Amino acid sequence: MRPRFELLTEQLKKQIVSEACQVLAEIGMEINNPNVLSLLSEHGARIDKETKRAYFSNELVNKALRSAPSSVKLYDVLGQQTHDLSGYNVHFTPGSAALNILDHKTNHIRKPSTEDYVQYAKLVSQLKHIAAQSTAFIPSDVHENISDSYRLFLSLLYCEKPVVTGTFTVDSFNVMKDFQVAVRGSARALREKPLTIFSCCPTSPLKWGDVTSQNLLDCAKYGIPVEYISMPLSGFMAPVTLVGTVIQHTAETLSGVVISQLASPGTPVIYGGSPAIFDVRYETTPMGAIETMMVDCAYNEIGKHLGLPTQAYISLSDSKHLDAQAGMESAIGATLAALSGINSISGPGMLDFESCQSLEKLVLDNEICGMMFRLIQGIEPREDFPSVGLFKELLNDGHLLISNHSRRYLKTEHFFPSSVICRSNNARFIEEGSLTLGQRAHAEVESLLSKYQPSRLPAEVQKELCRLMETEARRYGQNQLPNRG
């Protein structure tokens, strides 16, 4: 039996959706994009041109939900399927768009570089419990106007896994789309085998900006899956109660579903988010707070209730170092997310309120992800009945270390982490150098980087990606890209 975790009753789910639809119908969403307002108006939405508010009828919402697919599939750069985002399937991906990286040598947070990003992509390519890469942090050694496209460029060059990405500008979308078309060979092939997920973020409370809402239209045009990242803050930019926050999240996310489905019925969408409570003591948005995780799990239940794939920023930490707090918050989040069946879990590697990535934390989180996959397999009998013969063998031999039963099921019943996790006795621990968690994690990073195998993306495609990126960089006066090593 697959273990599950649930917070909401069926009646509460229905009431939350009903309240959210009432908010959309009576209060509406401010939308700062004339193309989106025109699209909504053409489909019968009431528009207040002066306030740029669109009012969504229940009929419009229900029509969009009927056309939205219940599953989203992703494929790697070679065209092999890696994801089925549906049901209770679980996949992990690193957190996205951090501004900083934790430097292992100094143990200080700093701005990342191209070299850091290349190491990150090489590392993710070998982490078997993390199914996708993300454009995890923003290199500071390129022009800010190409930072979105540059991250995707590096990801596609150095790692074969699909990418969770996004853009903070309208202009960046075209070159990022062209990268994907170059990998797939045609726009039609890209639509058939999506390579990326684009994160599109409404602004709480109840608003879509010009760039993010345009991204919805652009992604729908090319069949690029979208995850909606609504970010209500409980007690600040959303009601202080968790139910009130989930109602707001539902309204903001449903408005995105409507826009995408009106732009192109059947376009793949993912019911995601990154809400948080607001800690009034420090004026921060703790992603490691248990209430933040509860809101994530609750809106995941709403998404499943509506028949949509789900995503959440969870399994990350607010700590500034790879310490006990980082492990505690990440592990609790991963456990709740896996038991809730969140389809795309974004968070591994992240520290400091979604603003910092750590390669050492990433390899630790990979072990946490592996433990979660074992957890959700549950407990099932494996030739355990009748059990008398097994116990007779135990008493006869004094152990079951080499029994047929042990050899058959040892590797499927027991999860064996890498050397990042210390399971030796104290004498052996001392003999092997008494390494701290940080030291063991860094040793694993170094080991994996030394074993990296280049991407099998064809050379002519890599050359085209370089041409596209160099052309884009020159548009903003950057005539030479940083050395990638």
Strand content range: 5-15%
What characteristic shape results from the CA principal axes? globular
Q: What's the story with the biggest beta sheet?
A: 5 strands, parallel
Number of strands: 20
Helical content stands at 40-55%
Instruction: State the distance separating the first and last CA atoms.
Output: 48 Å
| Helix/strand structural class | alpha/beta
Low-confidence stretches: none
CATH class: Alpha Beta
**Architecture, according to CATH?**
Alpha-Beta Barrel
**Over all CA atoms, what is the radius of gyration?**
23 Å
> If strands are numbered along the chain, what order do they take across the biggest sheet?
9-10-11-13-15
What is the average of the pLDDT values?
97
For this structure, what is the CATH homologous superfamily? Trimethylamine methyltransferase-like
- CATH topology value: TIM Barrel
Total tally of structural domains: 1
Total helical elements: 17
Structure description:
The longest helix is centred in the middle third of the chain and has 22 residues, at 242-263. This protein has helices at residues 10-26, 34-42, 58-67, 114-124, 147-158, 171-184, 187-192, 210-222, 242-263, 290-305, 324-340, 359-377, 388-397, 404-413, 426-431, 437-450, 459-475; strands at residues 29-31, 46-48, 53-55, 72-75, 81-85, 91-93, 100-103, 108-110, 133-134, 163-165, 196-200, 207-208, 226-230, 233-234, 269-273, 276-277, 311-313, 344-346, 350-351, 356-357. It is of the alpha/beta class and 485 residues long.
